[in-house]
Amino acid sequence: MTAFTILGIAIDIIYSWTRMLVALGLSIVFSLAVGIVAARNKKAEAVIIPLLDVFQSIPILGFFPIVILGVIDVVHPEWLGVNVAVILLIFTSMSWNITFGVYEAVRSIPQDYIDLSQISGSSSWQRIVSLYIPSSLSRIAYNTQTSWAVGLFYLVSSEILTLGSKNYQASIGIGVAIYTFYDTGNFTGYIYAIIALIIAVVIWQLIFLREFSLWSEKYKFVEEPRGETKDPLMRVYSWVNHRSISKLFLIAHGSGVSRFTSSITRFKRGFKYAFFILIVLFVGFELGAFLLSPSPRSLPSLATILSYECCSSQSVLVALAVSFLRIWYVYFICVLVAVPLGIVIALHSKLYDTASPLLEVVASIPAPVLLPLFVADVTKNGEAIAAMIIFLGMIWYIIFNVMAGIRSLPAELWELRKGFQVSTYNAWRNIYLPASAAAFVTGSITAIGAAWNTLIIAEYFNLHLNGSSKLLTQVQIGIGKTISIAVQSNPANLTVLTLSILSMTALIVAFNLTVWRRVYHYTTKRFTYNR
Amino acid sequence: MATAADKIGSTSEPVISVEHVSLDFRKEKEDLPVLVDVSMQALRNEFVTVTGPSGCGKSTLLRIIGGLGKATSGVVKFRGTPITKPTSEVAMIFQNFVLLPWKTALENVLFGLSSRSDMNEQQKKEASVSALESTGLKGFENVYPGELSGGMKQRVGIARALALQPQVLLMDEPFSSLDDLTAEHLRREIYSLLINPSSPIQSVIMVSHNVEEIVELSDKSVVLSARPAHVVDIVQNDLPRPRNKKAPEFFDKVDKIYSLLA
């Protein structure tokens, strides 16, 4: 597939889309089964919902290497195994979000309808088919829009990741095509493939996602006042509200906390938790390293943990800490760019009308396909390239959320500003920034979550094609690099892989449960504009 | 308190004068008339109400008077000078209060003064505290709007407008998002709060669709027609204050306005 043909690219897209559609189909079936059970059965709910919460906050991409190794071992022939692994990965990126949608939809069916179905003596199956499924449809359609956008990122990433080993290639697919063109020096082909991907995304949005959503509208019980979500762009990106912060995970807990507890005590408590997380992480790590290390077993000392040597099991915690810092410094750059940009675009209707579809297209390009554009001198610029990929992986969540936050403000605030002749500086300080704070935090949580996923590609990417390998990017140290190298070593270093993924997951879940939950709860209480 | 007779006597130049204001709303090359040749005046110490069928353009007219919107033709004058943009002589009270939830009651009032470069911080604070006091919110300075009832929120909104020491106060259905009892209570206080010898306010213009509220409060009521709105009639109301809502004269006024609206 070195030569570039339109037919070739079309076939690639058809293969990729088939994987996406199979994953979407599986996600919808899974969501209906699990979502309905969770909504109608208290015992099941107590197990399923917290579990989904954990699933949706862990970096799925980190698991992919393990998944692919496992699946190929079990599923034969190999081409089928690879495809099953890719579909499984996309499935995990799509399904939690849709499941939460079904769960919430079924839970919010008016009690009258449930009573009616009981009085009329319909069987459980009849109730599922005639009540639960139809009332879930609009939420499925709504969440599918967002799941699709997320799924694309995982599609391309997983296709590319299968290139990590010559044997496991998902041989046809748009992600593979893009990298094959790049590898063979066919720059025209590379650009055309990316353009083809964008066109496919836009067309698909128009012919399928939009129609699906319009069709599902008639199954709504009531017209929900959704405001900004009428905007197709916001429909796609307001998914963050459903995905990364589920209602129970972040909101339910803090409901008893007074909104006027000072922010200082909150932050102190945050630090306390952060310290606690570190201790638990360290103890857990020691234990894991001890259990996984070959005999004679020994506890790794703090000195060996801190003396960094890529990419051994001892270095996992240091790598994790470095990646954590890397994500946060890129996050702050992101904030500096995205918040003012988002507010300015949202404030000017004309600019917004032109800029938002453009941003949508740019955002639909999965960051990994752009990697080759940045590659110059890997040894010198590894850190910058990693920052760039992480940046592109998270900025959209912040921009779109801030934009949605500002756009959803009622016009009366604008009248207030005009009527009381509030200066631009005062308006930014007292209206725009506080008013977008809640949406900004929502976007930030998702952005950071997305950043952990991008690490797998951003920190180390060794492209294997046709027997040769080409190092596209690498940083000195990082958890993403540690995972990638552990997978690619022959045989794969399962000890390092397991330790890395578990400690990364533990850190993310603990951070979400403590720090983010507090910040989220505080900002939504304090900074939501309501009457 | 000034009596109704005093007010009629003070026939100086109008505080606010709306002169032949028309507004067309341009939609796909077609001009939809919203306001047609609307003229009215608010004199010194006059409480004027504007009413009409819903969607007729009452609020739009109020926005134009406040300098928030532009008329297609005609002019609005404040003491003879055309109003082209909002000024601090003309303050606004909103139907939905429009308080910033992340600011306390006092900070919200202070925020309304942020454009007043002629006042220093201390003066602003004093003006805000006394405005809150005059609306009955002494002791609630450091409370956030989320902890206040609807009626108290609207009192903050009124205090924010009063702190500007405006000469004209515009109110867009100020009682319509309050429950009946709260609205009743606030309505009873508002006239003497706004129009009294120590108040800088000289005229109040209030948009409302509640006919009893109009008869209870106004000295003069401008009745607009359905879209496109023109002035159907201007009803003078000299009933003595405080007004007895059970008096037959009160019902006569109510009936008169209802018949004009029908």
What is the rounded distance between the termini of chain A? Answer: 60 Å
Task: Give the strand line-up of the largest sheet of chain A.
Answer: 1-2
Low-confidence stretches of chain A: 223-264
Shape, principal axes of CA atoms of chain B: globular
| β-strand number of chain A | 2
Helix and strand string of chain B, N-terminal first? HEEEHEEEHHHEHEHEEH
Oligomer classification: heterodimer
Largest sheet of chain A: 2 strands, antiparallel
Name the helix and strand elements of chain A from N-terminus to C-terminus, one letter apiece. HHHHHHHHHHHHHHHHHHEEHH
Largest interface: A-B, 24 and 26 residues
Biggest sheet architecture of chain B: 6 strands, mixed
Structural class of chain A: mainly alpha
In total, the number of strands of chain B is 10
Question: Outline of this structure?
Answer:
The complex is a heterodimer of chains A (531) and B (262). With 531 residues, chain A is mainly α.
Overview of this structure, please?
The complex is a heterodimer of chains A (531) and B (262). Chain A contains 20 helices and two strands. Chain A is mainly α and 531 residues long. The radius of gyration of chain A is 24 Å and the shape is globular. The N and C termini of chain A lie far apart (60 Å). Chain B has 262 residues and is of the alpha/beta class. Helices cover 33% and strands 24% of the residues of chain B. Chain B contains eight helices and ten strands. Chain B has helices at residues 4-9, 58-65, 105-112, 121-134, 150-163, 180-194, 211-217, 248-261; strands at residues 16-27, 30-42, 46-51, 73-78, 81-82, 90-93, 168-172, 203-207, 220-224, 231-236. In chain B, the strands form two sheets. Chain B has a six-stranded mixed sheet with strand order 6-7-8-3-9-10, sandwiched between helices. In chain B, a hairpin with a 2-residue loop joins β4 (73-78) and β5 (81-82). In chain B, α3 (105-112) packs parallel to α5 (150-163), α4 (121-134) packs across α5 (150-163) and α7 (211-217) crosses α8 (248-261). The longest helix of chain B has 15 residues, at 180-194. Chain B is globular. The two termini of chain B are 35 Å apart. In chain B, 43% of the residues are buried. The A-B interface holds A 259-260, 410, 412-413, 415-416, 418-423, 426, 430-431, 434, 437, 526-531 and B 63, 66, 68, 86-88, 91-92, 94-98, 100-103, 111-112, 114-115, 144, 146, 160, 164, 177.
